Amino acid sequence: MRKSIFFYKELTPAEVGKTGTHEVYVRLPNNFDYESFFGDSAVQNGSVMEVNFTAQDITIGGEKSTPLRFVYFKNSNQEKRIPSLGPLFKSHNVQEGDIVCLESRIDGTSHSYYLCFYKKGEIQVNPAAVYFSKIEKDPTNASHNSNIEQSLQQIFYGAPGTGKSHIIKEQTKGEDVIRTTFHPDTDYSTFVGTYKPTTEFAPVLAIIGDKAVETGREEKRISYEFVCQPFLQAYVAAWKKVAEAKGSTAKKQFLVIEEINRGNCAQIFGDLFQLLDRNDFGYSDYPIKADADMQKQLKRLFEGVTITDADSINAMYDGRDIVKEVLSGEVLLLPNNLYIWATMNTSDQSLFPIDSAFKRRWDWQYMPISDGGKQWVIEIGSQKYSWWSFIQKINNEIYEKTNSEDKKLGYYFCKPINGVIKVETFVSKVLFYLWNDVFKDFEEDNGLFVESYDKFYMVGMDGKAQIVEGKVELLLQNLGVELFIEDEDYEDETNGRVRYIINGDTFKRKSYAGKEIMSRYLKGHPNMTFKEIKETFPDNMLVHSGHRGLVVSADTPLDSYERYYSPERYSSSDGVTFRIYKQWTSANINNIINFAINQGWDIKVEELDGQEEQTDTL
Length: 618
Known about the structure:
The chain is α+β, with helices and mostly antiparallel strands. The protein contains 17 helices and 29 strands. The strands form eight sheets. Strands 1, 2, 3, 4, 5, 6, 7, 8 and 9 form a nine-stranded mixed β-sheet that branches. The protein has a five-stranded parallel β-sheet with strand order 11-14-17-10-18, with helices on both faces. The chain has a three-stranded mixed β-sheet with strand order 20-19-21. A hairpin with a 5-residue loop joins strand 27 and strand 28. Helix 15 runs parallel beside helix 17 (589-598). It starts with a strand and ends in an 11-residue tail after the last strand.
């Protein structure tokens, strides 16, 4: 029995960012059963329950994998939402009144997710949010239904770090998976099966007269037997599941091949290549003969196995008793519950090119480079740089110099610790890859590696290599990588929303409150020079922001920092036009509040009801 859970929502002005909110999101109703929708996969992160999942975006025809995150603020305002949807909304030009549909398809313990947007007026949702389930009962003879839910053979391909293995892990959660990795030494025997030496104990015999008599002692002996490798292990497990299903839908068996193009596929698959042609019911069109050694092993492994609906399978092969031949080990034939999925790094295409005949027997799922939404940072001393900003900048540089997508970096290229990529990891893994595999031949004119890779290290007093942090920072600054500023909405939600009351006026966001304090002070002191203003608001009020300061001249080129400063222009008494900082966060807000209190201002900070909308404007 299959079940689908649907959630339709007409998007509000607040959700699409029309009310001054920094973030766009989808808000879910209080009765949203996330445990059923996500299959008990939520994890607790402080006071927040989170689920990271991948949905297939079916808005424009096809299916594009999209990483998403569900959060439930269990211990604060009880709100449930899917945050950080800015790039996704932008790609579909989502507007107020548009409809979003989220679907969880549940088959046994397996969950798969789908996402679709509808423009305003395309469909009607009444009330504005609808949440319901639909159950599909298994049809008769379901195990041979031609409607295969997922691709039986597909390769997830893309740049390093795009989450190829992760999406397979998510989509096979709760299923039986046998995983292997191809490499240049992988061959047919290590993938399918081969004879291997095994140790056995045998009694020691003594000859007494003309008879052999056991002495009561045993000795080790080496014997050889045929041992199944990943392919045959998955193959046997899949057929046994067909038998266990007794005519109903058989449980899925996955064979996952990591780095499929790092091995010689033609050599590794050999005659199994023919099995990859599947009929409309998911079974191999062309069975192949098993060799004598393999046949003997398969016959032993299938001993006692009975396929209840063998006649319906035999009917696909003109009445040939194909099931008997399979269980006796005479032939190999892929059943329709055996899924073979693989990953392929586009940067490794030159290792063992895959020929077109092999390619056309697979479905191909492209994994684009996208923001993982994790707010990972590169930490260099006291500074934190945005990992996603670095990914965007470096990929532009890679494409400009190589005119190729293959060498680009995905979001998951580097694995952080608690969201932080240490400078040592960044240099030894990321910069080493860029120098060695991407830019080495462009060292003289690329503008990035103006010095060779070894210049990022120096020999310390202890004789060990140390990172030259200044050179790493210079590289990031030359690229224009943004310094990290925490996602303000996320902070407010996880730490509890608050409001700031300044001399009786209410501001419900840190950024608005901080900017308002600066703006009010400046309006009350119109005779200050630009130098006096800079001294009044020193840069050390900003913790780990590292931008150009609290006050910047209006003619200062801001580049990617534009969003951190107010659009309004202010003027000092000596004629300097300037702009002020506006992105106050949890790390900084107390500094500017203390400044206001020192001026004798009445400042209050109160808890804000989580259901209130953020309506402040700059």
